[in-house]
Each structure stands twice: as structure tokens, then as C-alpha cells.
């Protein structure tokens, strides 16, 4: 990403058409070339060539003009005033296009982008089969840069921690500035300002693109970035010279990361990774969700699920998602595009190298990123290719280790971290492989589990209770053993959210039901495993894994019940009568999950034999002797209404903005009715619209949808009405405002 502040987002007012001869329809970006059904669709429906056109005003002057495309799937050709500029390949990395020599000054210029969304064998991850979909369109932002003849192309804020106490430290900063100059040698002044620190240096700049090391400087008493205190500083880098001035703003976070043998330490504190994998796809529009929705995923992973790590499977993801990971303190394993297949085509392999370079150039300054994944996910050994990717990554960034995700034992180890997709746990006693078995070496090396569960035990949100429980327990067992084994840096489960896939994989409806949440980000029972591990300051949790009905389990019983909670004691009341207060210290826990930070309680008791009177229940969570949370179940649950919750009550009217609305059918104590599948109808009033269909059916008793601003939205109040076929109605008001 070009570092300069001299940029304008040009997402609004594009014209989209399937054919050059069509009139076109006005759209705002991000945009899906084809909105798809939720399931049972042919992925070929979005794999075609389409066209995006925009009139762009260019001022008079002698500036250099650039367009930067953050994400276009899969490749595109660009024309300026009907003149072909070039073709750019790869859907997950930004592409910088200089258009200076092709524009007319003081006039509107026609920008035409021909987008090829087919699965091309010359571009990773394609060439064979892929277990995810690569939805088409210009699905991320497009920027217009107006720059001087000499400008800052990249700023790499390199640093080292000289000393620290775990919270504050002395930081030596060693920024690297990449400058692009069309002019011969010239002298420029560079300045770096961070808070009240400002330093400057004089630099002789050569023609072309070159990197320059800024004079090192030291700052005392700097607050360190950490997962619990993700502190960042505002930084400005300015350049002044005869051929133009430039300024870049960025946020920087300082943290000390050590990964050696079996230890990962952040700012001197040992840490075990507790994470999930994330695909960046959503129902109906695939990849094309705006900033707010991308950020929300990071908030869900950190605050709702309580994770400390996420893997961006299997490609570089939205800059907004990564910014949010920085903001909330969520560690990231980022990797290049690909899935198992390694092509021998020279252009494909060259593209892999380009992906490594573009990923690191774009994301170098994110404190959340702890390793670069430089091996195609689950691919075989390729000494030539992976020697090259590792060498390139280390040359671009010598502050982070490399990793490479494999699924086979004893593959060639060229990276700094041996990362393994370990799907051995099938419900038996075999839960995780040993490091020695996977690496084939007795010598300790950093070892991390990057996938488990997933396709081994796919589970739908609307499955029968016992399957949902077993799905959760499998996640709990693996995470527990990962904490038990000193040789494992941590475990990252497959996966956070369900996702659409090719017909080669998943269920027959083209969905991989591998998530601990469904595609709408609504939790399954397995989400409780992670929620219960979160810091209580983000909220108390008590999640009994039961629907509290005697017909859900074999033999007509409900106990034993696993209760996942971050409370230290729980009480159970049946029919209003206390059956006791239970504490972990008296071993009321599952021994296969005893190494979790907060192991689940396992409760066994009677609540009347088959044919006896049935009662309601309440599970109460304590911290000390104080009641902090409870969960009630009705003995006789009946459909009592719909609960409608929205993520955000304000949207920006002057851009494409979106937010999620979750609808649940609830009983008289507020629990979701898991087998209610009635329809709902959505009405919108004002300058908003529903993404996808306006008539939906509840699945597993709940559903969600996203609403977005219209092409030309105005400030004011908009409304959403949700009507259930059962006669229940709810209404939500949203404020549309302009961005400051």
C-alpha cells in the first residue's frame, strides 16, 4: 500500500455491467459481481468477465496519478480513456497502477476495469481443487493517489525493544522508508513524529525505487502493545524536497515477541495460542463486505469468543480486519493464497513470490501479525519454491518468523515454526500428535497446530443435541491437550465460521459446516468452549450444553450436562429447589479438558425418572459468593416472540456501509427455540436495503441478515421491520450520518 496521505477513496459511483454493450447499473464498492444464494448454487455463476467504469476528475498540474485496487478477484485489465494500461493478477493483494501518462488534465477521465473472475490456472490458489469459494468482483476499496514526482511508497516501522518490564520499555526505532523518484539525485529531509518525539535526517535520494534506512533513535517509557492492552501510537512520517513534499500517517505498536523451541512469549510473558481460522466470506455477497463488517469479525473473535489468535486462511485478508486485530489485541498468522496444489507453471510460481512480497509490504506494520505463512496450505514439499519464499520473507522482514502449514508428517522443515494441520482426533483417545512424530526430529523446534476438527466432525447449528455437544467437546479436548503439552505453542481450530465451498467438498448444499458459528456468525454449542475461556472483564459466561428436554438424548435423560463458564462456582436449581453449589476445586470437571484455563463442569443428577414430573431449571454462576450470571430453562417452552438485535445503530450515509441484524425465535425465558423454522419477512424504510432475500426461514431457531446503505443515501432515520409468520413483529431505527 502506498504510504502517502494524498489519497481519495473512489468507491462511489461506478457503473457495472456484464457485457460491454450493456448500459450498466450504478454501484458502490465493495461490490460482488454476482449475488449468490445462501446454498445449493453453482459456483460457476460468478465465474465470468465483467466490467466496471467510472469517470475520474484529474486536476491540472505536474503530479503523478495512481490507482490502487485493494482487492479484485481474480485478475483485471485496466483502460484509461480507452487505452490499455496493463493486466494485474491475484485477488488477495493490492495492485498499484500508475496512470499519469494516460490522463487528460483538468478533465474527467474514463476508467474501465475488465474483471476476470474465472478460476485461472496461472494464479494461486487455482490449478486443481480448492476447498473454498473465491467470489468475484471489485470487492475491496479503490483509491486515487495524487503524488509528487518524488513520494514515499512504503514505510516499514522497524524497531527493537532494548529493555522492558512487561508493560513499558525502551524502544529503538529503525524505520525504513521506500521512496519512488522520477528525478535524478536530490536531497530531501525526512521527519518521523510519534507522540511528542520528533526526529529528522537529511537524505540523498536516487532516481527509481529505493529503500533508505532512517537514522535510529530511542524512546523511553513506551507502553507496549499486548493482547490485553493493545496500545498503539499515532505516527507521522514527512518528506520535504525540491520535487515535492509527502506525508504518511500510520499507527504503530511496540511489542517483544520471542518464539523459541516450545515457548512463545509476548513482552516476556509466556502465552499459549487459543485460536480459530477465519474465511473472509459472507452469505449472498461473498467477499464484498465493507469496513464495519470486516471489523466486526475481529470483535466477535476477541470479545465474544475470547480468542487470542486467528489464522487468515488461506490468503491475506481485509486491511480493515487486520486493523481491528491490532485494535483489540488479537494475534494473527497471515499466509499467502493457496490450497494444497503446487503448479509447475513458471507464471504461477512467480505469482507465489509476488504474493509473499505484496503481503509483507502491505502488512508489515501490524503489531498483531506474529508470523508470515510462506507455504501453500497443506501442500507437499517443494524445496526450490519454499526455499525462495522463506528467503524472500526474511529479506523483507527479519523481525518475524516464517511458518508453513502442512498436513503430512515429517515434511521438509524450511521455516522457523513447524505448523501442522492435525486432524487425528476422531473422538477416540488420540487427540494430538507429538511434535517428534510430525517433525521427525528429536531436536525441539517451535511447533504449532494450525487446524483441527473441521471436516472430521462437521456440525450444523440445527443438528441434534448430542452431535452439537460432541462437536464442542472435541474442540475442548484438543485445546486442553495443547495447553498440557509443553511442546505445542498453541492450537488454532478449524474454524470460526461456516463457509461456502466447491461441490467437491462440504455438504451437498455447498456449505462446509465446520465453524463454531454458522455463516451468519450465530454460535453453535462449540462456541461455548471458547467463550468460557475469555477474561471475565469482557463478560461472564455460563453455557450449559443442553436444550433441557428429555427427548434430545438417548434413554430420555438430560444428564450428564457439560457447563462451560468463566465463573469459579455454579449452582443448579431444579423446580426452584437448589441441588447444590459446585466448585472446580472438588473436581466437578471433565478430566479430558482439565488443562483448559476454565475447564467445564460436568454435572450428573436426577430430575425425575422417565414418565415423572418435569421441571424448569436454572444454572447460576458465582464469583466468590456473588451471583454474576444465570441461565434459565423452561419446563414447558412455548413460542413467545422474536428477539431482534442489531450490531450497530448508526451507519455512514456517504459510503457503502453495512451491519448485521440477528433474529431469534424465543421462549418465555428468552432461549432460542432450536427447531422452530418459520418464516420472517423484512421491510426497510429510508435509504437502506437488505443484502439478499427479504423473506427468510429460521434455521435452528435463528437467522441473520445484513442491511446496507443505498447507492445515494442521505442523512436521517431509517427503519427495519421484522415480521414473523407467527404474528410477532419488531422494529429497529437506524441513524444515517455523514462521516466526519
UniProtKB/TrEMBL annotation:
<dbReference type="Pfam" id="PF02837">
    <property type="entry name" value="Glyco_hydro_2_N"/>
</dbReference>
<dbReference type="InterPro" id="IPR051913">
    <property type="entry name" value="GH2_Domain-Containing"/>
</dbReference>
<feature type="domain" description="Glycoside hydrolase family 2 catalytic">
    <location>
        <begin position="258"/>
        <end position="533"/>
    </location>
</feature>
<feature type="domain" description="Glycosyl hydrolases family 2 sugar binding">
    <location>
        <begin position="39"/>
        <end position="146"/>
    </location>
</feature>
<dbReference type="Pfam" id="PF02836">
    <property type="entry name" value="Glyco_hydro_2_C"/>
</dbReference>
<dbReference type="InterPro" id="IPR006101">
    <property type="entry name" value="Glyco_hydro_2"/>
</dbReference>
<keyword id="KW-0378">Hydrolase</keyword>
<dbReference type="Pfam" id="PF00703">
    <property type="entry name" value="Glyco_hydro_2"/>
</dbReference>
<feature type="domain" description="Glycoside hydrolase family 2 immunoglobulin-like beta-sandwich">
    <location>
        <begin position="150"/>
        <end position="255"/>
    </location>
</feature>
<dbReference type="InterPro" id="IPR036156">
    <property type="entry name" value="Beta-gal/glucu_dom_sf"/>
</dbReference>
<comment type="similarity">
    <text>Belongs to the glycosyl hydrolase 2 family.</text>
</comment>
<dbReference type="InterPro" id="IPR006102">
    <property type="entry name" value="Ig-like_GH2"/>
</dbReference>
<dbReference type="InterPro" id="IPR013783">
    <property type="entry name" value="Ig-like_fold"/>
</dbReference>
<dbReference type="InterPro" id="IPR006103">
    <property type="entry name" value="Glyco_hydro_2_cat"/>
</dbReference>
<dbReference type="GO" id="GO:0005975">
    <property type="term" value="P:carbohydrate metabolic process"/>
</dbReference>
<dbReference type="GO" id="GO:0004553">
    <property type="term" value="F:hydrolase activity, hydrolyzing O-glycosyl compounds"/>
</dbReference>
<keyword id="KW-0326">Glycosidase</keyword>
<dbReference type="InterPro" id="IPR006104">
    <property type="entry name" value="Glyco_hydro_2_N"/>
</dbReference>
<dbReference type="InterPro" id="IPR017853">
    <property type="entry name" value="GH"/>
</dbReference>
<protein>
    <submittedName>
        <fullName>Glycoside hydrolase family 2 protein</fullName>
    </submittedName>
</protein>
<dbReference type="InterPro" id="IPR023230">
    <property type="entry name" value="Glyco_hydro_2_CS"/>
</dbReference>
<dbReference type="InterPro" id="IPR008979">
    <property type="entry name" value="Galactose-bd-like_sf"/>
</dbReference>
Amino acid at each position: 500500500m502506498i504510504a502517502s496521505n494524498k489519497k481519495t477513496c473512489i468507491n462511489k459511483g461506478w457503473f457495472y455491467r456484464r457485457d460491454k454493450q450493456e448500459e450498466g447499473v450504478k454501484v458502490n464498492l465493495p461490490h460482488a459481481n454476482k449475488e449468490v444464494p445462501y446454498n445449493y448454487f453453482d459456483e460457476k455463476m460468478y465465474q465470468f468477465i465483467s466490467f466496471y467504469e467510472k469517470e475520474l476528475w484529474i486536476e491540472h498540474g505536474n503530479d503523478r496519478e495512481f490507482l490502487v485496487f485493494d482487492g479484485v478477484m481474480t485478475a483485471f485489465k485496466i483502460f484509461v480513456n480507452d487505452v490499455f494500461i496493463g493486466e494485474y493478477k491475484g485477488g488477495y493483494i493490492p495492485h498499484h497502477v500508475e496512470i499519469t501518462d494516460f490522463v487528460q488534465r483538468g478533465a474527467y477521465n474514463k476508467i474501465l476495469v475488465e474483471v476476470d473472475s474465472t478460476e485461472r490456472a496461472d494464479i494461486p490458489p487455482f490449478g486443481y481443487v480448492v476447498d473454498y469459494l473465491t467470489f468475484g468482483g471489485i470487492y475491496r476499496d479503490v483509491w486515487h493517489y495524487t503524488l509528487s514526482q518524488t513520494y514515499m511508497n512504503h514505510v516499514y516501522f522497524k524497531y527493537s525493544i532494548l529493555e522492558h518490564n512487561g508493560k513499558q520499555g525502551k524502544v529503538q526505532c529503525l524505520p525504513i522508508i521506500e521512496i519512488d523518484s522520477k528525478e535524478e539525485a536530490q536531497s530531501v529531509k525526512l521527519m518521523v513524529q510519534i507522540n511528542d518525539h520528533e526526529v529528522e535526517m537529511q537524505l540523498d535520494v536516487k532516481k527509481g525505487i529505493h529503500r533508505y534506512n532512517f537514522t535510529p533513535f530511542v524512546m523511553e517509557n513506551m507502553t507496549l502493545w499486548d493482547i490485553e492492552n493493545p496500545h498503539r501510537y499515532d505516527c507521522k512520517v514527512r518528506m520535504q524536497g525540491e520535487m515535492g513534499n509527502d506525508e504518511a500517517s500510520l499507527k504503530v505498536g511496540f511489542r517483544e515477541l520471542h518464539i523459541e523451541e516450545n515457548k512463545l512469549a509476548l513482552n516476556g510473558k509466556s502465552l499459549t495460542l487459543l485460536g480459530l481460522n477465519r474465511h473472509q466470506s459472507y452469505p449472498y455477497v461473498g467477499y464484498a463486505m465493507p469496513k464495519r463488517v470486516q471489523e466486526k469479525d475481529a470483535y466477535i473473535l476477541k470479545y465474544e469468543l475470547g480468542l487470542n489468535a486467528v489464522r487468515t486462511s488461506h490468503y491475506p485478508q481485509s486491511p480493515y480486519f487486520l486493523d481491528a486485530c491490532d485494535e483489540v489485541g488479537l494475534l494473527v498468522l497471515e499466509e499467502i493464497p493457496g490450497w494444497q496444489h503446487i503448479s509447475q507453471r513458471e507464471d504461477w510460481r512467480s505469482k507465489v513470490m509476488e504474493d509473499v512480497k505484496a503481503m509483507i509490504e502491505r502488512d508489515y506494520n501490524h503489531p498483531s501479525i506474529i508470523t508470515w505463512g510462506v507455504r501453500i496450505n497443506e501442500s507437499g514439499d517443494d524445496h526450490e519454491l519454499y526455499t525462495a519464499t522463506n528467503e524472500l520473507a526474511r529479506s523483507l522482514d527479519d523481525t518475524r518468523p516464517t511458518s508453513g502449514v502442512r498436513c503430512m508428517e515429517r515434511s521438509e522443515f524450511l521455516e522457523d515454526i513447524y505448523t501442522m494441520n492435525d486432524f487425528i482426533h476422531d473422538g477416540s483417545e488420540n487427540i494430538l500428535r507429538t511434535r517428534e512424530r510430525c517433525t521427525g526430529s528429536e531436536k525441539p523446534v517451535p511447533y504449532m497446530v494450525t487446524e483441527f476438527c473441521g471436516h472430521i466432525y462437521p456440525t450444523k447449528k440445527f443438528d441434534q443435541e448430542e452431535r452439537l455437544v460432541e462437536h464442542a467437546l472435541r474442540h475442548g479436548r484438543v485445546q486442553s491437550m495443547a495447553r498440557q503439552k509443553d511442546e505445542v505453542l498453541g492450537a488454532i481450530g478449524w474454524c470460526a465460521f461456516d463457509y461456502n465451498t466447491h461441490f467437491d467438498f462440504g455438504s451437498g448444499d455447498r456449505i462446509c459446516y465446520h465453524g463454531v458459528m454458522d455463516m451468519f456468525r450465530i454460535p453453535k454449542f462449540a462456541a461455548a468452549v471458547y467463550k468460557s475461556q475469555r477474561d471475565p472483564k469482557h463478560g461472564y459466561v455460563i453455557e450449559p450444553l443442553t436444550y433441557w428436554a428429555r427427548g434430545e438424548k438417548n434413554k430420555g435423560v438430560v444428564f450428564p450436562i457439560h457447563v462451560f463458564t468463566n465463573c469459579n462456582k455454579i449452582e443448579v436449581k431444579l423446580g426452584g429447589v437448589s441441588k447444590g453449589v459446585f466448585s472446580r476445586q472438588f473436581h466437578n470437571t471433565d478430566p479430558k479438558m482439565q488443562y483448559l484455563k476454565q475447564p467445564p463442569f460436568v454435572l450428573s443428577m436426577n430430575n425425575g425418572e422417565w414418565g415423572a414430573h418435569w421441571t424448569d431449571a436454572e444454572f447460576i454462576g458465582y464469583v466468590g459468593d456473588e451471583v454474576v450470571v444465570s441461565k434459565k430453562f423452561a419446563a414447558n417452552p412455548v413460542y413467545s416472540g422474536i428477539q431482534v438485535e442489531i450490531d450497530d445503530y448508526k451507519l455512514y450515509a456517504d459510503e457503502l456501509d453495512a451491519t448485521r441484524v440477528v433474529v431469534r425465535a424465543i421462549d418465555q425465558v428468552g432461549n432460542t427455540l432450536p427447531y422452530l423454522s418459520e418464516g420472517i419477512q423484512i421491510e426497510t424504510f429510508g435509504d437502506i436495503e437488505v443484502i439478499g432475500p427479504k423473506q427468510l426461514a429460521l434455521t435452528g431457531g435463528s437467522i441473520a441478515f445484513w442491511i446496507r446503505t443505498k447507492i445515494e443515501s442521505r442523512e436521517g432515520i431509517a427503519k427495519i421491520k421484522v415480521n414473523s409468520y407467527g404474528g410477532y413483529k419488531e422494529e429497529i431505527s437506524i441513524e444515517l450520518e455523514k462521516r466526519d
